[in-house]
Structures are given as structure tokens and as C-alpha cells.
Design goal:
alpha+beta, 4-stranded mixed beta sheet
Length: about 500
């Protein structure tokens, strides 16, 4: 009895002191509207018993009913949902709001650009930015064309037949492409089954990591390690890292071979040597990792590669798969995209300069990303109080920015916000909207480092495929439900049919 009383008194005193230490946070939180929350557990009951599909639908309805910003409590953690574009700009452009919250650690890549602490991220991002400079992007265009052309011809196997899931093929394609253009390694020598297993395993791994976020009882690491989910995560993480380790070993082997071939006597005079070429991501990473001041250990080096592989593989595969699906849904728009391609580059490889002329394709891509976003939401953890219009976001809060809601907000996109219409991205309409009303790759200093690379690679692939095939599908946009995950998933496979436009033998 004495022990119970002692524990109860201790808990009460601890809770009172805990509240006092966060007095400012509670004061500012009270000024932000939100749903009813319970002591200790906050608003967590709102999400209990809902699977990822139900959660997206429920949260969308909730956000459309409540004002913005919206407050919610996840246990002791204050969540502030911000979906007004002008406030989103205040958040994402603030130097005090580039830190990501603790939940990003669940993905186990906290030394890469995706989840690194703000100070580490700032240093490494600045050093790695040059690996996606215009010079580098231009240099990879020929290789992107070669891979896309090869992929388009491989699709001939499926042309004229039944529906097939194009995402499986694109996941393998984007993995090979990202590795050859940014990681200096040709993975096309690997067996198809090995590449497909890597992509499938990575998707399942990070989907499970994401689901841990809204299961607050699994947040404490010591509890999570007791669950079967942790054991499965460790198994999948081991499989996931095998590919980056293979790339590192291949790079080491190639470097040793080149070193053995080098002969100082064969070197040209200094005045005749070529200018240094622009370094791709892996070359720049190898260069900066040799400087001990940059604090990139072996594990950090591998995590940078893991981040690049998953970020460039699953996101690009999903975006391209979604776009081929929507091209099949809207044949009139598909024909407009095709005619533009035939006007700009009817045959051969697509040049870097050609890409800027594909305005109809870009509008179509953007509309697909608006209604079927790759990322449903992102989060930031302000290290100081941040002023977002009339609201002060306290330090210690977690700011959630729901792209899915912003991209379908009728106050921004009009009464037909749920209707697929690429004309939403006509120049005159874009000029009328806030620039942060559409940010599929995030925005501000901590946006996606490979954003421009992503646009280029997607356009080149679409040129080669649409130029050779008509795309059809039986799926309609209202049939699709989105599942909340690190990369948004559909409730349906990407089932399309292909009809050759030309003889592709």
C-alpha cells in the first residue's frame, strides 16, 4: 500500500513539473483550434482501429471540417497541422524549421539526407548540392535516354496482350537507372528477380516503419524491440542494405582496377589535360567522405546511398506508374501529350533542351502528382518559435503539412478540385495561385535534392513509352483510394494495356 501511494505521489509530482516545464508550449497550443483531446493520451483515440486506407479518408474529412491550423495531441506530443499555403511557406522557409521530428528515426536512415539532424543535414546538403547541378543533369541525359529506350522496347513483350502491373517493371527500371546515373554502378547485370525483390522488400520495410508512427504505443524503442514487427524490420533492413553494400564493393573494385591501370608516364602535360568533369552523387560523396571534418563514417556513407536508392527508386516508380495509369484513364489528354512529343522530338533521343518544350506533358505530370501525390504529408520540428501568419508555432511542436489535403482544397483549386484537369497548370492559372499551393517535392531549404533530376528522368521515360504505345486501363480515378505511407500507395495495382503505335521489333 505504501509503495502504491509513493508511486502515485511521484507520478503526480512528475506530471505537474512536466507541465510547468512546457508552460509556454501549452499556452500557444491553446490558441490553436483542434478536436477534443483527453488527458495523457491526447487525440489518439481518433485514429485507433483504422487501417491506412480508412485513416486517409477520415483525416481528409476531419481537416476539411476544422479550421487551419489544427491542433492535435499524440500523447504528450503537440501536432500542428498546417495546410494554408501562405503558412506552409512561413514554416518551410524558416531556418528554425528544418529539423525533422523523432519519428523519422523509425526509418533507420538518420545519417542520410532524408532524416539527418539539422546541423548534419545542412553541412552534407551543401556539399552534395553540386551533384545535381545543371552540368551533371545534362551529362546524364544520354544515359537516361538509353535506359528509357531499352525499357520501351522491353514493353513490346506486353503489347497487344492483357492488362499487366507496370509498377513491377518500373520499380526495376528506376532502380537500374538511379544506380547507373547517380551511383556510377550498372545494376542491369543483376538478375531481374533480385532487383524486383529489392524494390518489393524496400516498399514493405518503409511502409511498416511508417505505420509505427501512428501506433504511439510502439514509439518507445524498448517496447518496440519486444514485438514481432521489430524482428521483421531487422530482417528486411538486412536485405535492404545488401544492395548498397554491393554497390560500395563494386565501386571499390572498379577503383582498384583503375588504379592498377594508371601509369604516371602516360599522363598528359598539365596544359593539355581536360577540365574536371562534373561529379555525380557517388563521386561527390566519395570525395567529401575522405575529409574527416565532414563526419561521414562507413555507416553514414552507406546510409547516404540507401537514401538515394530508395528516394530515387520507389518515388520515381510510383510517380511514373501513376502517370501511365492516368494516361490510360484520359485518352484525349494522352493524344495531346503524344502530339506534343511528335512535334518536339518525333524520333531519337530527347535532348536536355527538348525537355523544356514539353509543356503539355508537364501539365499532365503535375496534375497526376496533385491528385495522386507521392508523399501524403511531411513533418518538421521547430527548434525555436516560428511565426506562421497570425499563429505562433511553439518550439517542441511537430508541424504536419498534408500535401494530399492542400492539393485537393476547394478554396485553392475551385469546386472541381477532385476532378482531373491538367489545365489547372496553365501558366495563367498558376500565376493566380500561391506558389506553395503545389509542392510535390516539398519546398524551402530542405526540399528534395533530386527534384530536377526526377522531372528530367520522368519526362524522358514518358517520351519513349508514349511515342511507341497507346496506353489503356479499366481503372477510373474515383476507383482509387490512397493509403497513407512514406510513399503513398494505391488500393489497386497499376494495371494497363499497351497497343503499339509503330513496329517496335
Amino acid at each position: 500500500m505504501i509503495v502504491v501511494v509513493f508511486i502515485s505521489v511521484f507520478a503526480i509530482v512528475y506530471y505537474i513539473n512536466f507541465r510547468r516545464s512546457r508552460k509556454r508550449l501549452y499556452e500557444l497550443a491553446d490558441r490553436i483550434p483542434g478536436p477534443f483531446d483527453y488527458p495523457l493520451i491526447g487525440s489518439i483515440l481518433l485514429t485507433l482501429g483504422k487501417d491506412p486506407l480508412e485513416l486517409v479518408s477520415y483525416l481528409m474529412q476531419l481537416m476539411h471540417r476544422l479550421p487551419s491550423p489544427m491542433r492535435a495531441w499524440l500523447g504528450p506530443f503537440l501536432l500542428v497541422v498546417v495546410d494554408r499555403p501562405e503558412m506552409v511557406q512561413d514554416i518551410l522557409s524558416s531556418p528554425d524549421c528544418v529539423q525533422k521530428p523523432f519519428m523519422y528515426d523509425f526509418f533507420r536512415i538518420s545519417k542520410g539526407l532524408f532524416g539527418a539532424p539539422a546541423d548534419t543535414w545542412k553541412r552534407h546538403r551543401k556539399l552534395l548540392n553540386t551533384s545535381f547541378s545543371p552540368a551533371v543533369l545534362k551529362s546524364v541525359v544520354p544515359k537516361l535516354n538509353a535506359k528509357a529506350e531499352q525499357f520501351a522496347h522491353e514493353l513490346n513483350e506486353y503489347a497487344g496482350g492483357d492488362c499487366f502491373d507496370v509498377h513491377v517493371l518500373l520499380a526495376r527500371y528506376t532502380l537500374v537507372t538511379i544506380s547507373s546515373t547517380t551511383l556510377g554502378t550498372d545494376l542491369s547485370v543483376e538478375k531481374r528477380a533480385v532487383l524486383e525483390e529489392y524494390s518489393s522488400n524496400a516498399i514493405r520495410l518503409f511502409t511498416a516503419c511508417f505505420e509505427r508512427i501512428y501506433k504511439a504505443w510502439l514509439h518507445p524503442e524498448f517496447i518496440y524491440r519486444l514485438t514481432p514487427a521489430y524482428k521483421e524490420e531487422q530482417h528486411r533492413m538486412q536485405l535492404f542494405k545488401q544492395m548498397s553494400r554491393k554497390i560500395i564493393n563494386m565501386r571499390h573494385a572498379a577503383a582498384a582496377e583503375n588504379k592498377a591501370k594508371d601509369d604516371p608516364q602516360d599522363s598528359e602535360p598539365e596544359d593539355k589535360q581536360e577540365l574536371p568533369k562534373a561529379k555525380i552523387f557517388i563521386e561527390r560523396l566519395e570525395e567529401i567522405s575522405r575529409d574527416p571534418n565532414n563526419n561521414i563514417d562507413e555507416d553514414g556513407f552507406q546510409q547516404h546511398i540507401d537514401t538515394m536508392m530508395f528516394g530515387g527508386n520507389d518515388t520515381s516508380a510510383q510517380a511514373l506508374s501513376n502517370t501511365l495509369l492516368t494516361l490510360g484513364m484520359y485518352p484525349d489528354w494522352q493524344e495531346r501529350v503524344y502530339q506534343e512529343i511528335m512535334e518536339v522530338v518525333p524520333t531519337g533521343h530527347i535532348s536536355y533542351e527538348d525537355l523544356t518544350k514539353l509543356t503539355c506533358m508537364e501539365m499532365f505530370l503535375k496534375e497526376t502528382l496533385r491528385l495522386l501525390p507521392i508523399t501524403g504529408l511531411i513533418a518538421r520540428a521547430p527548434v525555436k518559435e516560428v511565426q506562421a501568419r497570425e499563429f505562433t508555432i511553439p518550439s517542441g511542436a511537430i508541424v504536419l503539412i498534408p500535401f494530399l489535403k492542400i492539393h485537393r482544397d476547394k478554396t485553392i483549386w475551385g469546386p472541381d478540385a477532385e476532378v482531373f484537369n491538367p489545365e489547372n497548370f496553365l501558366p495563367e492559372r498558376c500565376a493566380e495561385r500561391h506558389p506553395y499551393a503545389f509542392i510535390p517535392f516539398s519546398q524551402g531549404p530542405r526540399n528534395c535534392i533530386g527534384m530536377k533530376y526526377g522531372w528530367i528522368s520522368m519526362k524522358i521515360l514518358l517520351c519513349h513509352v508514349v511515342r511507341m504505345y497507346r496506353i489503356a486501363t479499366d481503372i477510373r480515378l474515383p476507383d482509387i483510394q490512397l493509403s497513407l505511407s512514406l510513399v503513398m500507395k494505391l488500393n489497386k495495382k497499376h494495371l494497363i494495356r499497351l497497343e503499339p503505335r509503330i513496329d517496335v521489333r
